[in-house]
Amino acid sequence: MCGIVGYTGTRQAYPIILKGLKRLEYRGYDSSGVALLNDGKLNVYKKKGKVAELEEAMIGKNTDAHIGIGHTRWATHGEPSDRNAHPHLSANGKLSMIHNGIIENYALIKQDLVNKGYHFTSDTDTEVLLNFIEDIQKNNDDCKLEEALRIALKRVSGAYCILLIEQDNPDTIIAARKGSPLVIGIGKGEHFLASDASPIIEYTKEVVYVNDYELAIVKPDELILKNLGNEKITPYITKLDMELAAIEKGGYDHFMIKEIFEQPNTIFDCLRGRLYAKEGNIKMSGVDDNIDQLLNAQRIMIVACGTSWHAGLVAEYIIEELCRIPVEVEYASEFRYRNPIVNKGDVIIAISQSGETADTLVALEKAKENGAFIFGVVNAVGSSIARISNAGAYTHAGPEIGVASTKAFTGQLAVLMMVALDIAKHKGTITTERYLKLLLELEQVPEKVNSILKNAADIKSIAEKYKDASDFLFLGRGYNFPIALEGALKLKEISYIHAEGYPAAEMKHGPIALVDENLPVVFIATHDPYHEKIMSNMQEIKARKGKVISIITEGDLFSKSLSNDYFEIPMADELIAPLLTVVPLQLLSYYVGTAKGIDVDKPRNLAKSVTVE
Length: 613
Ligand code: M6R
Hints:
Glutamine Phosphoribosylpyrophosphate, subunit 1, domain 1, single chain, 3 domains, Rossmann fold, seven-stranded antiparallel beta sheet, eight-stranded antiparallel beta sheet, alpha/beta, 23% strand
């Protein structure tokens, strides 16, 4: 978590840092701060709350500086407060640092420093690392900062992306990364540093993605990259393929609703150049170039977190159905610690919007060490998970800024569907007729999503009717069971209403005890082979006076008659349906959240990219 920004060059640093922090607020927003080097002195300003509160507090302050660093925080060590906000100042006031990550062995280092007489002004692991660096400098004949940092980093465990500035070195930012992302934008006589490219995009499109265990010495006219062994590395410059409009709200009230409404385009972009429905073909180089590896897999493991894990559950059903390969879906956080059996040649599909989720990343590193083949389904281009993967397919959903994942999820489903179809065709486990039908249906998804979005006002009315409920139940079967889980997760994170997702038939094994006249139960009840079964489940809820809200296939009169409220979606094959059924549930959570006055793009306690354990 946490967003970091740095600037060194000829412009005023503060406005660039402030704007960058606003763009990175999705990564954490419980406090923020900046350190500016002006008048030969390091000045640090920090404030609990969102970046807007820092901006307010900065009015009237001297911000005339050409170098600075800024941070927006998602608390790990120490409560959200002014004192725990970054940047921190070292004990002698000569160094300032921001940090994204966790220093796991900070307690031991802190004790050592306390014994030496250091006092700490915050509860953070970051201040410990900073004073550790200061102490190393002191004990090594006032060695150069980069040298002290290198020594320190060899002794710490955990994850970090850090930026450091030094009073006596007024044009240089020293940066390092392990496990938390860092991008450096290359301008003319200036450099920009940030957790992702969004604060950089309007100044330059040339960037360098810093790798783990690399250290950067950044001056206005110079970028030196080194490894921790002090050897120089040639920076690899990438051209950003992103426009500024993609990271702005474009007239919508929130990023979340903008991103929901972008889905016809993002799904189209995801299919483009891969799906050739009329020719009856899918071209995915990540699959085609590695087909032997994929066909020889005895099983596929899918590793992901949160919404991406739900996409994995849908993929499990689809891959087993179409490819007849056994699939297991794992929470990355469990997988990484539970000593799973991973053998050479096993295929792991890693699903991640951000490509930076710490649990997923570490799980993959371990699996890779054991010889597994990693296939990444990632949205953020150039991210850590994309780079650790042996092969993969980007979801091409564009930057997703709202904390709730929406367009990235449908992108994941579209990619995974194509991967399954491509493997099934190569493996011969699908008939030509079925293959062609699914290709045609997949091609129609953007249009069908568009038709759902045209009726968003109907979902808004339903949301207003049920916004005061204290609990919700979401039920689905088959391919729509993971969508029930996703609907519940969306509602929880955006509206703070307790919600549970269940396979509809499981309801009678426990959750049915919750049903009374106050409980809204959302059924995902589109036409599929389990339709009659789910109708029975609806009857069971109705018999207990629960309020039935249903997502149904157009023209399904019987489902309508059983529902208190319903929303119709276009007819679709059961394998394709999740791409459609999830959209009204995204809208439901958005409209409930906004009706309750919640800042849906930045709901409490959450961060977009979970780069800590
Ligand atoms: O970036 P990732 O897809 O790896 O993130 C995984 C989860 O943190 C993420 O899906 C989270 O659950 C979202 N807030 C859900 O909307």
